[in-house]
Design brief:
Elements (H helix, E strand, L loop, with lengths): L7 E5 L8 H15 L4 E5 L6 H15 L1 H14 L6 E3 L5 H11 L6 E5 L9 H6 L3 E6 L3 H21 L6 E9 L5 H13 L3 E8 L25 H6 L2 H12 L2
Parallel strand pairs: 1-4, 1-5, 2-3, 2-4, 5-6, 6-7
Helix pairs in contact: 2-3
């Protein structure tokens, strides 16, 4: 893959915990790096959890203990002829400078850097970090508190930071996550109308609710979903409509 001189900076961001930002960071990073041929790096600034750093440690242990996954990983890395993408740990206030230094010193050209950022505006440096992104994707669920916090924060970014021009942000996109088919369709219609009324971008793709988003790999599993070392199984992607999301995501960022 040819890369641009400046990699894309992308964050899955939310002001509400538990909506999937770390999961989507991992899913997209692994798909782009291991299956689509791009060179990816991830910066974990979600202090103090640093869940992606912990996830990488768990994933490595699971691959080493599961013979099927070990064979999958060996075949994958032999075929793509590159290492696992790096996950680097920094605080939000230092992350843009650290990312730029990483780009300048990397011996391979980087196409995309994903940032896992803290979910609160009270974190030092968080607004500056978000303003340094090229694209922000915000998962939303049909929950009043999630919607209120996400809409207020997205409006802040779009109407204040982006309009001032002191930002690298090209666009911010909301998308529905954990969509349950049993929920009332009019509820989503009301929320969709509100989002459009506020002039915010809403992706067409909707991610179906799945236990896979909250589940680590079983001991003897032969497929993976959320992993920092292997891309998600294609059948699992289709089951929750993540394949459609990935296609729309790639069109937005124009990679």
């Amino acid at each position: 893959m040819n890369t641009k001189n400046q990699p894309l900076f992308i964050a899955f961001s939310s002001q509400k915990g538990g909506v999937g930002k770390s999961t989507f960071t991992t899913l997209l990073a692994s798909l782009l790096h291991y299956r689509m041929g791009y060179n990816v790096a991830v910066f974990d600034a979600d202090f103090p959890q640093h869940s992606l750093m912990k996830m990488k440690t768990r994933d490595l242990a699971m691959v080493m203990e599961n013979q099927h996954l070990k064979k999958m990983a060996y075949k994958q890395f032999s075929t793509i002829n590159k290492k696992a993408y790096p996950i680097l740990q920094y605080k939000a206030e230092n992350i843009l400078g650290a990312a730029q230094k990483f780009i300048e010193t990397s011996y391979i050209p980087i196409d995309v850097i994903f940032f896992d950022l803290p979910g609160t505006v009270n974190t030092p440096g968080i607004l500056k970090s978000l303003a340094g992104m090229h694209y922000i994707f915000s998962p939303i669920t049909a929950d009043r508190l999630v919607m209120e916090s996400t809409l207020v924060f997205t409006q802040l970014l779009q109407d204040v930071i982006m309009k001032k021009g002191e930002t690298s942000l090209k666009s911010i996109h909301l998308f529905w996550n954990q969509v349950d088919g049993r929920e009332s369709t009019p509820l989503y219609t009301i929320y969709n109308d509100l989002i459009h009324h506020l002039g915010l971008n809403l992706m067409e793709s909707q991610i179906k609710n799945s236990t896979r988003f909250r589940k680590e790999g079983e001991e003897n599993t032969k497929t993976v979903f959320r992993s920092t070392l292997l891309p998600a199984d294609e059948s699992l992607l289709r089951a929750c409509r993540l394949d459609l999301f990935v296609n729309e995501f790639l069109k937005i960022i124009q990679l």
